[in-house]
Amino acid sequence: MTQNMSAKVEKTAIVTGASKGIGAEIAIRLAADGHAVVVNYAQATADAAGVVEKIHAAGGKAIAVKGDVAALDCACNLYDVAEREFGPVDVFVNNAGMLRQAPLAESDDAMFDRLVSVNLGGYFRGMRESARRMRGGGRIINISTSVVGFYHPNFGVYAATKAGVDAMTHILAKELGPRQVTVNAVAPGQVETVLFLEGKTEAELRYYADRIPLGRLGRPTDIVGIVAFLAGPESAWLSGQVIRVNGGGV
Question: What are the catalytic residues?
Answer without folding.
Answer: 158
